[in-house]
Amino acid sequence: MKTTTPAWLIVALREVETKLRDKAFIISTIGTLLVIIGSIVVSSILGSRTAEFAVAATDESSYEVLDQVQKDKPGDMRLSIAKATEPEARQQLADGELDAMLSSSNGSQEYSLTGYDGVDEQLSQLVADGVDTVLTDRVLSSAGLDATSLPAADALAVSQLQGDADRNSMVKAMGFLFSFLFYMAALLFGMPIANSVIEEKQNRVVEILASTIRLRQLLTGKIIGNVILAMIQLLVFLGVGLLAAYLSPLEIPFLGVVSQVAGWFVVFFFGGFLVLAGAWAALGSLATRTEDLQQSSGPVVTVLIAVLFIGLYAKDGFLVAASYVPIASSVAMPIRLLSGEVALWEPILSLAVLLATCWVVLLFAEKIYRRAVMHTGGSLTLRKALKLEV
Amino acid sequence: MLELQNVSRSFSEHQVLDDVSFTVPGGALTGFVGANGAGKTTTMRIIMGLLAANSGTVSLNGVELSSDTRPNFGYMPEERGLYPKQPVIDQLVYLGQLHGLARSTARSRAMDLLSRFGLESRSKAKLESLSLGNQQRVQVAASLLHEPDVLILDEPFSGLDPIAVDAMSSILRDYATRGVPVLFSSHQLDLLDVLVDHLVIIQKGRILASSSADDLRASQASRHRLSLGSDAGWLRNEPGVTVIDISGPEALVNFDSGTTAQRVLSQAMERGTVNEFSIYRPSLADIYREIIR
């Protein structure tokens, strides 16, 4: 009984199946997922933890200071203040019921804040500010002035015309994430394409395969299989990351923009990865043994590191240029999209350039592959491979 | 019938095949012999479409094959190769699917072949855990899975133990009986002698002989072996007798006719004792040595 399942699909399914049975792959995927979830959980726990202090005043003027502190403290801090005699307060400090006690001396001109084995820095700063305010108010009122009539300390407000500080740091963080995901996937799924080509070359299965199906089908199947795996893994990482961010109690700014750009990133990632996949397959067919790949993969790894750095550091004109260069655009264009100042035609044009490059690279890879994969004696250079006759 | 016509191929400056023509008839086993480097593997790769010929054609039943794949051919390459780390049954099913079989069909065919080779209990073992002989059986199974219309086997007997050689021989016979053209190369000339119906001899890229084994044998069948009581040197001067070899009382000669043979026999008996006077049937090994000389 004959079937009409195309050969490339059978090859692609085998790639996926083999990989899904590979323990190292499963462990590394689960590990990365745990790191993503863990980092979001940890950051939301750290973010939502509110500081809580209990301070006692041993005299009336100290209580006045604490009252001032209570008014000025930031919203996410809880402060309970009380009056107590000094021996009581010392006892409570020792028991851990109090964080500090405040006492005045020298006619309420000097104050001392005492902790059991140290005082929290945030608390002591607040109390110091409170003391300042109280003492200043006292001097002012003795001079017959009202403190509210003085110019405020925060008379100057700082703002920026281009974007805003919060958004810029978000772009930076996401830029790092995109670059890193792309770099990791390009190695994690690109290298296996090369290895799988070498394996078949080394074991000479390729001779049987090549006499059964067209090499183009074999190459296409290999690339598609690994692209499917890379895309599934990327979608799982992004999906779980966004979901965890969405569910976390902490309010994450720009979640809407980030989700939208993540969609673009998936598309650009796909194109960039296809270009790299072609390059990896060609490299694999040039090598004879897995060890050869260590040397020949140098240029591709260099390109990947360059892309990683572009994602991390490129700015302005350079970033705009990079967003049209294939492979680099996979990272650079999503970063530009995050800052929200890109017209719709720009990512579409960049994508068109990327897909055209894909096509050319795949054709070239096939040409190299066809010539080199049947070659057995020693590894080849690109030039030698192109000279080989089929 | 598989037919090669005027196939030539060179690698850079080196001419590997020079105007190679021969046929592989259906329903017969064709042996392909020649020294190392004579061009056997290159010929087989061209038949399989793995290499392109510089000139000449390969045709099956009169239809010229393009430089495309040959999905209905069964092929066992000289350099054996399957996936070492994959279970035996999985890779057979995979290869079967690539040949266009449904997964279930591929699985049942693979199990049939494995049980025929006595390997059904090892079907889930990784290939690399099998002995070399058993790996080779799996390799053969891989080439037979899709019930090919043509079988091309490069050195199928090398590295097999005598039992496996018998199993292999019977499988090849089996396919030939179904009318499938079977071409295989081998260096084991004694094996060819009992197995093949047809022989192709190649040397330095040229075909020296290509005909049925019986014809080849018949072409040398006028030879006689003589063992006399005394020196056989006098045979050199007999008309109609070509001496191939004489050592003392033993001689290997060609008679130009049956009459000459009878005359020489009676003369020998007059001269003394005749211990042996027989028609010498050369083995294919002898013929091969004769032809490539």
UniProtKB/TrEMBL annotation, chain A:
Keywords: Membrane, Transmembrane, Transmembrane helix. It holds the Pfam family ABC2_membrane_3. Its main location: membrane. It comes from the Bacteria. It is a multi-pass membrane protein. It is found in: Membrane. Residues 23-365 form the ABC-2 type transporter transmembrane domain. The chain crosses the membrane at residues 24-46, 173-194, 223-247, 262-288, 300-324, 344-365. This is ABC transporter permease. It comes from Glutamicibacter halophytocola.
